[in-house]
Amino acid sequence: MYSFDSRVRYSEVDHNKVMTASTIINYFQDCSNFQSDSLGVGIEELTKRSRVWIMSSWQLVINRYPTIGEQITIGTWPYKYNGIYGYRNFILYDEKKEVAAVANSIWVLMDTNLNRPVKITDEDYQAYRNEPAYPMEYADRKIRVPKELTSLTPFTVMPSFIDVLNHVNNAQYIRMATDYVDENFQITQMRADYRKSALLGDIIYPKISKTNDCITIVLSDKEGQPYVTVAFYGTTV
């Protein structure tokens, strides 16, 4: 497992002084980038080969939310490759070295010249060392979307949403979706199913469905084609 230590910053917490789901995802994303860079297969090297890893799905399970100033450890490891897909776990330890959050993620290897997925080769994964998958209840990648959704106010993709790949960063979608979660809804699990990339200036059309234990947000284009579907599971407190 690759890991690094950090401390929960003022800029990473909400008004309750605890980390948010999108903050945790940002840490996990950074951790995988740090590992790739340390192994010599980071963004710069992938760019030379016209390759990029694109997020396909997240499953995040949150046991507790670390608080402002708390010492934390973030870890990650790949556990499987299959065709065009790479599978990777993440873990977040709190200052008591207890598991605060754990995640499963599925990635797709893309050829940036052809703009299509390509099969993973020895060259793509030989730098990594697979470890056993984390013992958790793994959910399906696809999220079942309720038939009845309520449309919300559309918004434009702003420059601050865009990452080094010139599209909306996967963690930004989580932050967008979290804005529609009721303040008294305690998120214990989050799933995200990414379908296509939103670019600068695109208009995103949000739709929502709520039950007692699940809030589903679909962020789509004008034609109703999803950029991402995000489902938050939890309880009202």
UniProtKB/TrEMBL annotation:
Name the UniProt key words of this record, in alphabetical order: Fatty acid biosynthesis, Fatty acid metabolism, Hydrolase, Lipid biosynthesis, Lipid metabolism, Transit peptide
Q: Enumerate the spans annotated as Acyl-ACP thioesterase N-terminal hotdog domain.
A: 7-127
- GO MF entry, a single one: fatty acyl-[ACP] hydrolase activity
CDD domains linked to this entry: 4HBT
Q: Does the keyword rRNA processing apply?
A: no
Q: Fetch the Gene3D superfamilies from UniProt.
A: Hotdog Thioesterase (3.10.129.10)
The UniProt family comment states: Belongs to the acyl-ACP thioesterase family.
The protein's name is Acyl-ACP thioesterase
Record organism: Lachnoclostridium phytofermentans (strain ATCC 700394 / DSM 18823 / ISDg) (Clostridium phytofermentans)
